[in-house]
Amino acid sequence: MPAQRPVITLLTDFGMCDSYVAQMKGVILQKSPDAQIVDLSHEIPPQDILRAAYLLGDSYPRFPRATIHIVVVDPGVGSDRRVLCISAARQFFIAPDNGVLELVLRSAPPEAMVAVTNRWYFQKNVSTTFHGRDILASVASHLAAGVKLSRFGPPVADPVRLQLPQVTMGDKQISGAVIYADRFGNLVTNIERKHLAQVFQGAKSSQMLVWVGGREIRGLWRSYAEQQPGELMCLLGSSGRLEISVSGGSAAAGLDAPRGTPVEIARL
Amino acid sequence: MPAQRPVITLLTDFGMCDSYVAQMKGVILQKSPDAQIVDLSHEIPPQDILRAAYLLGDSYPRFPRATIHIVVVDPGVGSDRRVLCISAARQFFIAPDNGVLELVLRSAPPEAMVAVTNRWYFQKNVSTTFHGRDILASVASHLAAGVKLSRFGPPVADPVRLQLPQVTMGDKQISGAVIYADRFGNLVTNIERKHLAQVFQGAKSSQMLVWVGGREIRGLWRSYAEQQPGELMCLLGSSGRLEISVSGGSAAAGLDAPRGTPVEIARL
Amino acid sequence: MPAQRPVITLLTDFGMCDSYVAQMKGVILQKSPDAQIVDLSHEIPPQDILRAAYLLGDSYPRFPRATIHIVVVDPGVGSDRRVLCISAARQFFIAPDNGVLELVLRSAPPEAMVAVTNRWYFQKNVSTTFHGRDILASVASHLAAGVKLSRFGPPVADPVRLQLPQVTMGDKQISGAVIYADRFGNLVTNIERKHLAQVFQGAKSSQMLVWVGGREIRGLWRSYAEQQPGELMCLLGSSGRLEISVSGGSAAAGLDAPRGTPVEIARL
Hints:
The structure is a homotrimer.
Chain A: E1 7-12, H1 20-31, E2 36-41, H2 49-59, E3 68-72, E4 83-88, E5 91-96, H3 102-107, E6 110-115, H4 131-144, E7 168-169, E8 173-181, E9 187-192, H5 193-200, E10 208-212, E11 215-218, E12 232-236, E13 241-246, H6 251-254, E14 262-267
Parallel strand pairs in A: 1-2, 1-3, 3-5
Antiparallel strand pairs in A: 4-5, 4-6, 7-8, 8-9, 8-14, 9-13, 10-11, 10-14, 12-13
Helix pairs in contact in A: 1-4
């Protein structure tokens, strides 16, 4: 009997127009009726593994110990791609082996990692197009009910890794990229607090110059409220990444800076 | 005292911009604070009873025994249309009597069926425009708390039935129709595994020819990954229905095949 | 040990594309693993305090005693605007001090009201852009776990108030405004049942004349089903407000009547 209700999160590209998400929840509740199920997001653009990887990486540290994260962004469903079940950072991650766990693997060394192969823990009739329901949710419900990770299949040492856009550091400069825009039109970059700390130690905010999408932005703000409405600004977002924003507006709408757009930073 | 937390699902055309769904949940939690509430979907196009009927039919078999499904797609709210509470497949269904339970009725003979009339189980002031909250959610919360179905009102024997698009079987052919497109642009049809089994027993995949929206598709694939990206394909989807898909793309975007479009299949 | 699971609702302008909502839930579950978390809505247009205020005001009365409502529509995040924690109507409300609690304050005299300042109950590293996670959700999780309101900070007597569009009453007329459109295109007004009762006591429905967006509507209907499909109508909506609707259609699509559009009513 677990001491408290197991937490299970779902991150998919299913949207909420169909009942795919609900079907996964039905399967989970069959074995784990007490589960605390949280929608991480279901609005990942279809098959956008990179976006899901970042969302998961930014979110999982906020969840309690033993949380089970299920990720179903799975263009290879029905092929021979593996399904992984990983223990890391004292939480669990169940996902197709397509790189979607990249940010987890980079931030927390896995404690255990198996390929999910034991059909005992699958639904009875496994479809070829919806492993999210028939395999991943099913396995998660057993994991939540107390089954050991090692029961699901053999150890794996070579998960598929995802190529991420690089951050390049110079003495007085940093090169990175826009990795996604959020709902508010904030452009989130792959440049993190640690990168800025390295180049700007002892510097004033005004010594920071940022180029992105043909625009130049000076200084690092602390909050949206500090900048004039409608003006571009840079700040450290809530996941510790440099973000390009427009106070009271949308940087994504104002700049031509889709994912992958270079972001150049210099110390004056 | 129920042995485990009651599961209650909600299927509506309310969307999530307003607070209608939340108000229903508030009412449920008043009487059934321990309920495990699952959003089946709230993105049914306004008053699209047929779409809701299919979503419910495809989803309910995934849920545990005693789950209570509430459906609020209710163009007749405030008129004298009845509200039904049905027990079938060892689960419960509460819905306006407008045909939205058609797929349930076809797949599982009802164990009991009543018209919900006992105002004792309604909210105190019943609005004329939101029975989902004031009647259906309220009754569900009592049902979850252990009240017997028969307390809600008198037995009903003649629920409103929904006309569904027909599947016509020949010796070597099947005629059906597109019933909806899902988020990925898969065109889901009313042709089921059993229909295909009848005509294609002993046949090779290459003996199947499908016409839909002016296009011809040969063969039945097992998974998206087997077809070239961008190419049309047919496969048996996760709810056991024939689906027209584009590998890594959207069949709905590529074909002019809205709901009701004929789908013709022949055995070569 | 609380007698039952604490209910916590979330009302934000975060949408569900990102993981902001999920991050708040992760924080809540850290301290309050048994919480019953309900999404009130996350589709508030970015920074639309007025819309959030109305949604909250219309919804909170449906929730059980001791429910904790968290509102994060927070254009001033990171500035020196206060965060409030209020007890009213035997429920709790945690929100930035920007007027978003206006409808609560008008309908229920606060039993207690504090400014949230005690960092003991915050997350360890408070970001400047996501107080919803680092302060509001964190404080809510402690409140749900039994911490007294007074522990969060000093009493407050002067919450920021929101200017709402006025209703003006005459002997035989009422002037109000459209306050929002819902998903179905119903135009919800600030004219309430009590206003109509005052002017139309003893009157027949046909004595009511309404002007809005250049159109004239006669009579007050009881339900959508009473009017011809496609025709304009007025009725008292589920939150007790006068609504302009089109039976089986969208009044918002048919009328040019955005928020703030005057609504004039006369008794003939």
